[in-house]
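User: quick one, fold this
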Amino acid sequence: MTNQKYATMVKIRSKDSPIVKNCAKAFFIGGTICMLGQGILEVFLALGLEEELSKTLCSVTLIALGVILTAFHQYERLAKHGGAGTLVPITGFANAMSAPAIEFKAEGLITGLAAKMFIIAGPVLVYGTSAAIVYGVIYFFAKGL
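Assistant:
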């Protein structure tokens, strides 16, 4: 079978994605997650906590919610409908970090849970640290001039 025949067959058998509907759902669900984050921040501020501490606690709370929803397989249900709207907020990163670890927990604490957690975190840590070093060196020399 040629590539052209294969492409034609795929086009005939696959249905078009409802792009506008998917974008609207992603916008709504992502926006709802962000509104939840803002609400959590406002609660911490209303409790009289300092702004910096409130922001930190808000991030930690959203990460915890993302991990808890992932552990109970609810985040994937949300992501099924929200698509990219669930990837962008901090909860999406928490889901990406915890999902592999939770999936492989039966293999043990070290070879399963701990090792699989770094499937996603590894590249983020390596490239994030490398970029921070490069930017730090550039900043050091730019500031010295």
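User: anything notable?
Assistant: The mean pLDDT is 86.
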